[in-house]
Amino acid sequence: MQPTLRRAGGFALVGTLAVAAPVLGRAAFAPFAAVAVAAAFGITDGPLFELFARPADRREGRLNGLTGFALAAAGLAILATEIGLPIPLFVAAVLVLAYGNLGKRLVAETTDNPFLGAAGFGLGGSLAGVAGQAAVASLSSTSILLPRFTFLAVAGTLVAALFREMLFERDDPLVMLSTGMLLWLFDALAVAVGTLDVVAGLAVTVALGIASYALGAASVAGMLSGVLLGLLVIVFGGVGWFAVLISFFGVGSLSTKYRYDEKTERGIAEENEGARGTGNVLGNAAVALVCVICFAASQSLPVDGTLFQYAFAGSMAAALSDTLSSELGGLYDNPRLITSFETVPPGTDGGVTWQGEVFGLIGAAVVGVVALALLPGVTPLGGAAVALGGFLGMNADSVLGATVEGATFGNEAVNFAATLVGAVVSALAVFALL
């Protein structure tokens, strides 16, 4: 057995101490505090040191990794007993990280494939998260709500896996705390989680995530971001919302792959053979995620959630409009800078072609039609408002590209701004029509 696997198993055993929280009550932090003190000051050599020591720990002669892990768990325990973080979520946050890391290390014993490693993290973390919440329910004599536990465990595992892809192993305390906070938010928003929602959400999003990675449309981090986003959209919004989301990712990914070799020769091809990373996914879908979260929150507040529905669709219309304009319009010659109409080389930020404008309008219209067909209460005028917001968002992207992209803002920030324009225009247009 490799030292890294033994170490992951040791961390998983320490994480399992969280399950005792219902019995310990306000002292739930104590076991982790004791582990942190022992790791920081007591264990400097011997078998336990060798079990838990990371390479940096050996150089410094102290178990800093275990100390940070235990302190983060102790902090979450205090939030659970003193501030109001639900005990099951505290347990889930600790276990999804500890057992997710163990699952990833188990896979690493036989293969270094990054996708399989992420799958190992996902399976180990999700199973442990469900089991931990069920154990807390049993010890507390409360109902075992399997659909809800499954949704929260999987969502927490995806959050932890995504952070682990972007951060280092030494950042596990930050991963744990972030996972706990986001689970708290998800739990508050998920007023009612049905079995069908969870089963459908998991089946569809995981299948599409696997397909996107296999086809080279997303990196591992991009796949995890997309699966998490899809799951939240299905559970908090519904199938119609997911259809709007997938209209962007599906059509957009196909357009990125279309005549990719020719785009490479022209210098306009996306990096990594068109595979979407986390930055690309969030740059195009962060506004949509905020909209679906606000929609879920509006069901418990005196706020009309319809506007968030239109804003969500408008942001996706802008994202698809911009993608088609760039990926298909970039194949045509003689682009002109949108601010001055002077001819510029292909691939110049802010350069547009009339063909790209047409493709962008088609992309915005596609999302508008999907919204009209599948989102509840969307009228023909509402669908037109979505298309308008998408088209104006695409052109806002071009204006920002010609003026501030590169020197001040990166591509992801410009994409975010464009989708925000699409969301605001669509919502305001519908508000004016209501």
Automatic annotation (TrEMBL):
UniProt key word Lipid metabolism: no
Keywords for the protein's UniProt record, in alphabetical order: Membrane, Transmembrane, Transmembrane helix
Predominant localisation class: membrane
Name of one Pfam family that matches: DUF92
Its membrane topology: Multi-pass membrane protein
Location relative to the cell: Membrane
A Gene Ontology cellular-component term: membrane
Keyword Transmembrane set for record: yes
Transmembrane segments: 30-49, 61-79, 115-139, 145-163, 175-193, 199-220, 227-251, 281-298, 352-374, 381-401, 413-433
Entry similarity comment: Belongs to the TMEM19 family.
Name by which UniProt lists this protein: DUF92 domain-containing protein
Organism: Halobellus rarus
